[in-house]
Amino acid sequence: MALEVLHGKKVWVMVGTRPEVIKQLPIYWALVRKLGRDQVALVGTGQHKELLAQALAHFKVTADVNLDIMKPNQTLIEVSANILLKIGKLLTRHCPEWVIVQGDTTTAVIATLAAFYQKVKIAHNEAGLRTYDLANPFPEEANRRMISAIADLHFAPTELAAQALLRENVVKEKIWVTGNTGIDALFWTLENCQPTEKLHSLQERIGDLDWVFLTAHRRESQGEKILRWFEAMADFIRVHPDLALVYPVHPNQIANEAIHKFLVQSPRIFTISPLDYGSTCHLLNRSRFVITDSGGIQEEAVTLGLPVVICRETTERMEAIHTGLARLAGFDGNRINECMQWAYDRSQSLLKQRNTLFGDGRSAERIVERIRL
C-alpha cells in the first residue's frame, strides 16, 4: 500500500460499502472542485470488497488507498479491529484536517473512533437517523449514535434527523440540514448512464406488465419473517394480472428451498442476478411501486414518486410515512397485503412526480460549504 499518495491531503472521504460510495462520491467530487485533487483523498476499507469495486467503477473513480480489510469468516469484532488498526496507522503517518464518514456502517464508526483518537476533525454525512431500537437495525443503530456523540459536524438529511440530534444534546451550531447526497447520485446516474443490456432483456421478458421492484437483504428480515413476505407477495401477484414482480437475487439464494417455493408460485415473478447501482436506478425509474427493506431505496423511490412498502418493523426514514408516501408493513400477512393494495391503488390513481423530501440533488454542495480548512 503506497502511503505516499495521502501525503498533504487535508480531507479524507471514507468508504467501505456500496451505499457509502453512492452517498460519499458527490461530496468527493464537490471537494475536488473546491480544493483540487491534491487536497482530497478517497480512502476505501474494502468492507464490501466486490460491491465496493463495482460502485467505484460506476462513478469512474478509484480509491487512493484500499485497506482490503475483509478476510474469510471474520467476526464483526475482527472486522472492526482490523479497520481500526489499519486506519490508525494511516492517520499516524499522514494526518488530515478532516475525515468525512457516512451513515452507520462499521467503516464509518471505526473511522470515527480512529480520527477521534488522533484528534482529527470528523464530519458525519447522513447524521441523525434513528429507530431508537438498538437491535433493529443491528449494529447500525448503535453505530450512528456513537458517531453522533463524537463528530464535529453533523450533516442531517432532513429536519426530522436534525431534531433527533438536538434531543440528544448535540450543539445546534454543529448541525446542518443538507438533504441526502444519495439523491445527488441518483439524479447524476439517471442523467449520465444508460440502461444496461440486462434491463433491456428484462423488458423483453416482462412485456407490457407493470413492474413491482422487490429488494430483501437485511439480516433482521431473514428466516421466518421473510417467508411471510414471500407468501403474501405471491398471493398478491396472483390476483393482479397486470403486475410483474422483479426480484434481484443471488443465484445461491434461489437454491434455498423457501425462496424457490416462492419463486415458482407465479410465472410473473422474475428473478435477475444482483444489479449494479446504475441498473438499480433505472429499474426503480421504470417501476410502478417498490417493496423494500433497504434504506437507500426508500429514499430513491420516494424521490421518483413511487409508493413504497417497507418490509421492516421500524424505519429511520419516518418522513415518508408521515407524508403518506410510504407504509411500514412489518411481518404480519394481513398488514403486508393491506400495504401492497395501498401501493397498487395509489400508483394507479396518481402520476409519478419527483419530490424533494429527501433531497434536491444539491446536498453535496451544501456540505462542502461547511468544511472549513
List the helices and strands and how they pair.
Layout: E1 11-15, H1 18-35, E2 40-44, H2 49-58, E3 65-66, H3 76-93, E4 98-102, H4 106-117, E5 121-125, H5 140-150, E6 153-156, H6 159-167, E7 175-177, H7 181-192, H8 197-206, E8 210-215, H9 224-238, E9 243-248, H10 251-254, H11 257-263, E10 269-272, H12 277-286, E11 289-292, H13 295-303, E12 308-310, H14 318-322, E13 326-328, H15 333-349, H16 363-370
Parallel strand pairs: 1-2, 1-4, 2-3, 4-5, 5-6, 6-7, 8-9, 8-11, 9-10, 11-12, 12-13
**What oligomerization state is this entry in?**
single chain
Examine the secondary-structure arrangement and name the CATH architecture of the largest domain. 3-Layer(aba) Sandwich
CATH superfamily of the largest domain: Glycogen Phosphorylase B
Instruction: Give the tally of structural domains.
Output: 2
Measured as a percent range, the helix fraction is: 40-55%
Mean pLDDT figure: 92
Portion in beta strands? 5-15%
Radius of gyration: 21 Å
Number of continuous helical runs:
16
Query: What is the N-to-C order of secondary-structure elements (H for helix, E for strand)?
Result: EHEHEHEHEHEHEHHEHEHHEHEHEHEHH
Unreliable residue stretches? none
| Biggest sheet layout | 7 strands, parallel
- Report how far apart the termini are: 27 Å
